Amino acid sequence: MGSLPVSTFKPLDIKALLEEIPVMAAFIADYYKDIETYPVRSHVEPGYLHRLLPYSAPGFPELLTTILDDVRNDILPGLTHWQSPKFFAYFQTNASNPGILGEMLCAALNVPRPNSMDWMAKFLRLPREFTFAGGGGGVIHGSTCEAVVCTMAAARDAALARIGFEGITRLVIYASDQTHFTFQKASKLVGIPPANFRVITEIDQNLYIRND
Known about the structure:
Elements: H1 14-33, H2 48-52, H3 64-75, H4 97-109, H5 113-123, H6 144-163, E1 173-176, H7 182-189, E2 197-200
Parallel strand pairs: 1-2
């Protein structure tokens, strides 16, 4: 069993890349230009894509225009359009020109993570020890939920290092009633008993937990 000939296997074809980037950019631009015309929430049943897409991935390449037609006709109807001006839910809109272009660059080159994380720490006015330059550091997660689980796991391990790992049932999490439900889910994932998640309803005018 050998490799495919180079002439038929070109995962990075510069000529094709230069032709396809404008097509993809136009698709993304049209989506955001027309986003108000879509229902904010999907009107499809869970699992609907199983009836529309092939059972397995295509065995041969497809034209980018064909793929984008599938996205437009089959996938967009199943989305919740977070970037819509009609979307009023847990998270703010987060698309931007720098964000989209930065994702393209990261996909091509990777990202200078330590520098980016130190910039973020300074933006949040965190102490220097939270930065790579100060002996700390961080990581960019794929989602907020993923970051919450990682943060709780780190807090759990720090506490158990002091009291012993058999003391996990003694750990308690305090959160305001304004906290996203992700935190309760994350506490279960890291082994904190559900009864030890304490919801605090006493908050001040800035929605901070009162410590009195």
